[in-house]
Fold this protein.
Amino acid sequence: MTLWFVFALMTVAAIFAVLLPLGRSGRAQNQGSEVAVYKDQLAEIERDLAAGLIAAPEAEAARVEISRRLLAAAGSEPASEPKSSLKWRRAAAVLALVALPLVAVGVYMPLGSPMLRDFPLAQRERGSGSGMAQSLENLVVQVEQHLEKNPTDGRGWNVLAPVLERLGRFDDAVRAYRNSLTYNGESAERRSDLGEAIAAAASGVVTAEAKAEFERAHALNGDDPKANYFLGLAAEQDGRKDDAANIWRALLAKAPADAPWRPLVQTSLARVGGGGATMPALSDETVAASKDMNEGDRNAMVRGMVERLATRLKQNGDDVEGWLRLVRAYLVMGDRDKAVGASSDARQAVANDAARLRQLNEGLKTLGVDG
Amino acid sequence: MIAESGHYALVLALALALIQSIVPLIGARLRDAALMNVARSTALAQLLFVGASFIALVMLHVDSDFSVANVYENSHSMKPLLYKITGVWGNHEGSMLLWVSILALFGGLVAAFGNNLPLSLRAHVLAVQAWIASAFYLFILMTSNPFLRIVNPPIEGRDLNPVLQDIGLAVHPPMLYLGYVGFSISFSFAIAALMEGRIDAAWARWVRPWTLVAWIFLTLGISMGSYWAYYELGWGGWWFWDPVENASLMPWLAGTALLHSALVMEKRNALKVWTILLSILTFSLSLLGTFLVRSGVITSVHAFATDPTRGVFILLILCLFIGGSLSLFAGRATSLKQGGLFAPISREGALVLNNLLLTVACAVVLFGTLYPLAMEVLADFKMSVGAPFYNLTFVPLFTLLLLAVPFGPMLAWKRGDLLGVTQRLLAAGVAALVVIAIVWAWTRGGSALAPLAIGLGVFVIAGAVTDLSERTGLFRLPFATTLHRARGLPRSAWGTAFAHAGLGVALIGIVCETTWNSEYIATMKQNDVAHVAGYDLKLDGLLQRQGPNFREMIAEFNVSSDGEKISVMTPSKRSFTTRGSSTTEAALLTRGASQLYVSLGDATAEGAIAVRIYHKPLVLLIWWGPVLMAFGGMLSLSDRRLRVGAPKPARAKQRLQPAE
């Protein structure tokens, strides 16, 4: 409320500034004029002459010139007295009383945020704990401020680094991981975290710098899964797909069955084509080859793979190839109902994308699942 | 509440400016004193509201209120107080607010102290001033609003560009803006004169102080900016012919011409139309400078943000004002009364020559600035016009100008005697020749032109001294009389002498610095010694320090000469975390007017550091010159007397003994 009161006061002051001169009577005030300037100039010549700054003949010449101008100026001086036109003054007053507030409010309202109070920093620090100041980014800033003053606090860097990485501030995350390494000491985990951040900063490319970090981590702990995964990725990006497959296969072999990163490594392995038995690619040959296995094993294996694929597609339905593979797997397994169900799920999942939908329909047609 | 009140005050200023741009004109047409007086009270109220708005923004920056986008983007809670305040204009929005605040300040000054102006002239001037103000208020509110808010304020700001975190930011922009914007007054006076169709010596008398104030501030602003670039950018250059520098130099050249032609007009009632045109051109160049710097056409440390809508908006303002004023000039100039006559060889003639040279120099700079831009836009061809171009064009023009400078003040009004003046300047010429000979004998290396240029500088200074001694009768008359006459001499005469001598001083500094500057660039390890121009600099070591919002690496140098310890120099490199950038802080050691300059490069892994050491002989003269010029301007400004140019009577003898 006080804000509106202040606005009103300011507006009144502005209006008053316009109205004040209008109220005064239009008497001619003492205003400057050309004639006055020339008269002053004449007086100035006398003073200069007296001070000896100009000689008498020069002074005389100047006097003649200025007098000539003085006469001309006196002749052209506006003879008419200042007038006062009440009509126009009233118009000006109306302009001040109506147009001025209208313009002010009309310009201010779309631009200003009158409902927003000030938030000077001092006041906010006292009142911290209010929900406003506690967003993740503000917490990050507070930790950063703390670390700015105590740069050797290794735990702080440890906490900050992953958060920065999640916020997408990869360069800062790299710096934070480096500091964490400096103040917390070496560990395979930190090295590979640093490598991951460097790779993320390079939008996913495992650069030579990142690779060096992973190799260090690998040297510290040969079983560090992150280092192994990224070394595989580096190999893949270098075009050495077999090396990548070997690294990942070894990683999977040692991995605990419930490791959360298992599916990631498996799909990566599938990508480089070194999938072998664990690959969810489900080509006809794979399914056919598995026929040689004993019945129970084969079914368990295939079902496991198909279920994983189905779960993945439920989470991310954009993958048309994946859907087609799933449908084909159901067909191979002789489960036509599930195949039809999966194809309608697929249509729903990609319904918003015309290109993908077309691709899906063509794929389904070749598989012989409806039209 | 502070933020919103400041915002609303700015809006009210716009509303007042709109009223101020219409009502007084109607009043002048109807000859209604009350309506004309509206200009005065609205100008003062405008100053009040813009001032309040500016103070509000300063308070927001000091309080680190990050709910204001401008504060969040350009401030940091841990920044020292001085930089919190200067940071207000260290960004686009804030600097535009400073621009209009100064515009309102000048408008307010005219309103408050313009009692000696004819009422209708004052009304016209303030109305034109309000047009400019309205355009810029709209520009600020629509495209560069400093009071926009953030609903969920972040807890920390993004900090100010580290290069700007320097005392220079407290001085350079306000000074420069006082200069730029000050020329708006002479522009408004020119437009008012054209609208009224009346122009006379009285007009020049009223315009001259405003022009002089603007010129003083612009002179100081440019030289301050140059010194700032010299010590902050870390490689010892002080002028780069950079488009942004040119943008400030052009109004200065035009403004200097205006100052001199207004003098002719005030004293002799001549050169009226030309003076009007110069007033328009000077402010147009100021606007052009604002456009070049603010639109992002040129990217530099001055272009805080590049936003096409801003560029288009300023371009519109530019076209409107320059186009409008020039067409008004074309339409009305012929109807103005012609002024007094004069012989080619006379004080007026000398001032015309001065104007001619200054405007051509200005046109050269304008060409050098705009041509590369035009080529880039039209032909997609990147080029830079640098020192070689200006050495071939600008320098000869200025050489001619400097040769003529001592003659000007000594010629008589209306008809002068060149031979007589030459005789009287003989002593100055001899002094210059002696200096040339000494410099030639003393120095080795460097350009053969350097001693000549120094001689020219000496000639200009000696010419200024000769002028003073002629006027006071030094050596001709008894000393007591001389003293008496010196006291009686108008302060404007002293001002002229100081300003002209300042030119010579600056020239000597420029020549010495560019010719005999020695440098030493190397990678130094601890205890390494560099030998530069007779000084030994020993690197004592590197140390780290934590500043308020930066960390810095300091290198300590022990400076000695002939085994005698002189001082310790500590250049440093500061790295600012928030912006992730760093600055070099050069260390300067002043010895007389010469300086030793040390700045740091990158450190190598082995603890060595790249170092640049310069010895710059008489470099400080480059800035003492302009300070002297500004001092001369102030002397002239403090002279409240009326200016009368007593003409030389046609039949008088050539050398008159002054009557005591």
